[in-house]
Amino acid sequence: MNKTQNNLRLLPRRFKKAAFSLIALTIFFVVLIFSEFVTVEKELAKTVTSSGILLSFLLLALTRDKVEDELTLIIRLKALAASFIYGVGYVVISPFVNLLFDGEFINDEMGTEGLLLTMFLFYFGMLWLMKKNR
Amino acid sequence: MQNRLKIERAIKNLTQDDLAKLIGVSRQTINSIEKGRYVPSTVLALKISEIFDKPVNEIFELEDTD
């Protein structure tokens, strides 16, 4: 039997700790900047913060749960598909919404990082919802 | 797909958690199968049939709508 067929090559559970540590570190960095202990260029601070959050979210998304079985695999793939559809929908629909409401509802400067961040949040939300209702 | 998982489990006096541990899945997966919300893979169905020592088609049954 092909073992990889019903299995995603997910990271061991210890990576969850690494992801949360990275989030904590990023938040600490943001606090340092806001409290003006450290003076960093605005663009650099933005890049470091978004990279830290995105990397930690990626680690969280790729780390296995306590019990991983075929149902959780299906749930993961459905949540991933939903977040992809959300991403495409956002990119396609946002220009029209901006056109209609003069950019009042959707921030045009969200950029790639913002889109990926909301896609991750959408993925985690869907994953949680589907796990709760399985 | 209909199944007799709950009945077979009761006969063997197994909880959902016991069965889940025996076949290496989560308790929620067993619950979803029993409620008919999830149709297990062939591998999982065979594992279940092995636990109850019965053929797969005695535990799982196709419905007219399947």
UniProtKB/TrEMBL annotation, chain A:
<feature type="transmembrane region" description="Helical">
    <location>
        <begin position="74"/>
        <end position="93"/>
    </location>
</feature>
<keyword id="KW-0472">Membrane</keyword>
<feature type="transmembrane region" description="Helical">
    <location>
        <begin position="113"/>
        <end position="130"/>
    </location>
</feature>
<feature type="transmembrane region" description="Helical">
    <location>
        <begin position="44"/>
        <end position="62"/>
    </location>
</feature>
<protein>
    <submittedName>
        <fullName>Uncharacterized protein</fullName>
    </submittedName>
</protein>
<feature type="transmembrane region" description="Helical">
    <location>
        <begin position="20"/>
        <end position="38"/>
    </location>
</feature>
<keyword id="KW-0812">Transmembrane</keyword>
<keyword id="KW-1133">Transmembrane helix</keyword>
TrEMBL record, chain B:
<dbReference type="Pfam" id="PF01381">
    <property type="entry name" value="HTH_3"/>
</dbReference>
<dbReference type="InterPro" id="IPR001387">
    <property type="entry name" value="Cro/C1-type_HTH"/>
</dbReference>
<dbReference type="InterPro" id="IPR010982">
    <property type="entry name" value="Lambda_DNA-bd_dom_sf"/>
</dbReference>
<keyword id="KW-0238">DNA-binding</keyword>
<feature type="domain" description="HTH cro/C1-type">
    <location>
        <begin position="5"/>
        <end position="59"/>
    </location>
</feature>
<protein>
    <submittedName>
        <fullName>XRE family transcriptional regulator</fullName>
    </submittedName>
</protein>
<dbReference type="GO" id="GO:0003677">
    <property type="term" value="F:DNA binding"/>
</dbReference>
